[in-house]
Amino acid sequence: MIETHRLLALIPAHNEAANLAQVVTEIRTRYPAAEIVVVDDGSTDGTLALLERMGVRWLHWPERRGVGCAVRAGLRYASMLGFDVVLRLDADGQHDVEAADRLLAPIRAGVADAVIGSRFTRRPHGRSAGPIHRSLAAVLSAVTNRVVTDPTSGFWAMGPRAVSLLAEHHPRGYPEPELHLLLSRNALHVREVHVRARARLSGRSSLTPARLVAAAARVLLALVIVPLRAAAGTSARD
Fold first, then answer.
1. Which whole-number Å values give the CA distances from 47 to 30, 42, 75, 141, 182, in the listed order?
2. Helix axis angle, 209-225 to 176-185, nearest 10°
3. With 50 as the cut, is the pLDDT of residue 127 above it?
4. Per-residue pLDDT tens over the stretch 35-51
5. Collapsing DSSP states into helix, strand and coil, what is residue 89?
6. Is residue 43 part of a domain?
7. Residue 183 belongs to what domain range?
8. CATH number of residue 147's parent domain
9. Looking at the domain assignment, is residue 86 inside a domain?
């Protein structure tokens, strides 16, 4: 069992100035002892000026690198400072912080290395998801030998083994589907728990249909490349 005294809430953000303050407030209310780090992925909407006033830790890049790079940077920060558990959630308000305890519980009990908040676990194999989501879920379920219902969820809890691995090897770009493959290839224990999907507080999602298709193509490529690599924890480098 992990006694979690150092919880880091990691928020990658790109042009979410209108939503970020409420997300941070929700985290502080639910987990007052947690530290919060926001990784500003090249925002152009005043996010940086907002961060300077919010009293949170933050990293900033002048140009956009992608959410995967932002999450990797946050995990490196966590690893360097010795955080036991990282809760990763988006800056748009879609992730209900009240549900985070369900993600953290298997980590704290020592029965999972990573836990995903899935929007579709209470429906047969993600039936309410779109066709690309369903196809990705089916492929990842077959390859990882576990049920994957929400391959693009950005709501994760990560324990020490996952933080150590992903601080160096977290996929870049729009990474969530590839992340399932990476964790499986490195024999980490992953669970899904059901979470309620909320509407964005404001603005539009950056995960457009075109980017979702690109993510699916990257997964198909990874299905060919990843089995040819050694486990990332040994000699392979992402």
1. 23, 9, 20, 37, 31
2. 20
3. no
4. 999 999 999 999 999 99
5. coil
6. yes
7. 7-228
8. 3.90.550.10
9. yes
